[in-house]
């Protein structure tokens, strides 16, 4: 069995346990394998292990992988997207996790051939280094997308603050869940907003306990080839 398969089994078990803890046994939680730090070969290995959702955070990395890999998988763009790069990526992906401004929405509207499933990125923690709207701006931003025919708001995305304090991380995920529920309750045709993209290698279990439907896992799943190289040199 490959290393990725072993990691995947462990992560799936941890997700099952987190769902149980939160009485969410019936819910589907999708694992996005974040392959931004690994090679095409390693990405192919991840697909071989059964992963069907793959995430990249740079246009170059995404195009590189998509060009080399001809498999029926779902590609997620999880990084912040510069407006001028939209045309390069928008018709290659299934999901965009970083919709955070009107100018980006306008460029997508212009360039996309089919409607794009988008997560609106929310900066719940208010950290200045993070992209995303404030939680109290999210609803009005989403309402303003009503006439965009190429944007479907499937959910919200956030990144937890960089801290060891589990209660802070949990509180961020709880707030994103509340915000998502409030938007879903509006019943907007263009914004069903049923999904929550939150949780990475270090905090996906907490995210699942708080309602994540997509977790974005890189290091703990596919590794990070720089890190492994370092280990090799020791
Ligand atoms: C890199 C990245 C991840 C995965 O991070 P890991 O800690 O390696 O699991 C998830 N989400 C985003 C937006 C990322 O850039």
From TrEMBL:
This is Pyridoxal phosphate homeostasis protein. Keywords: Pyridoxal phosphate. PROSITE patterns: UPF0001 (PS01211). Belongs to the pyridoxal phosphate-binding protein YggS/PROSC family. The modification N6-(pyridoxal phosphate)lysine is found at residue 36. HAMAP family: PLP_homeostasis. SUPFAM superfamilies: PLP-binding barrel (SSF51419). Pyridoxal 5'-phosphate (PLP)-binding protein, which is involved in PLP homeostasis. It comes from the Bacteria.
């Amino acid at each position: 069995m490959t290393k990725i398969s072993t990691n995947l089994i462990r992560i799936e078990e941890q997700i099952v346990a987190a769902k149980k803890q939160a009485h969410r046994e019936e819910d589907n939680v999708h694992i996005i394998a974040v392959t931004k730090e690994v090679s095409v070969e390693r990405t192919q290995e991840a697909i071989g292990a059964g992963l069907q959702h793959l995430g990249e955070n740079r246009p170059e990395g995404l195009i590189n992988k998509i060009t080399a890999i001809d498999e029926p998988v779902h590609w997620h763009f999880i990084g912040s997207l510069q407006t001028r790069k939209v045309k390069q990526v928008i018709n290659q992906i299934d999901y965009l996790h970083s919709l955070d401004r009107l100018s980006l929405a306008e460029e997508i509207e212009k360039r996309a051939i089919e409607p794009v499933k988008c997560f609106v990125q929310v900066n719940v923690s208010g950290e200045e280094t993070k992209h995303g709207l404030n939680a109290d701006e999210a609803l009005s931003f989403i309402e303003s997308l009503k006439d965009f025919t190429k944007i479907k708001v499937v959910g919200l995305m956030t990144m937890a603050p960089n801290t060891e304090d589990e209660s802070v991380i949990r509180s961020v995920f709880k707030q994103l869940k509340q915000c998502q529920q409030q938007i879903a309750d509006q019943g907007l045709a263009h914004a069903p907003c049923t999904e929550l993209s939150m949780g990475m290698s270090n905090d996906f279990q907490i995210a699942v306990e708080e309602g994540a439907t997509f977790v974005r896992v890189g290091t703990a799943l596919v590794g990070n080839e720089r890190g492994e190289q370092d280990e090799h040199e020791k």
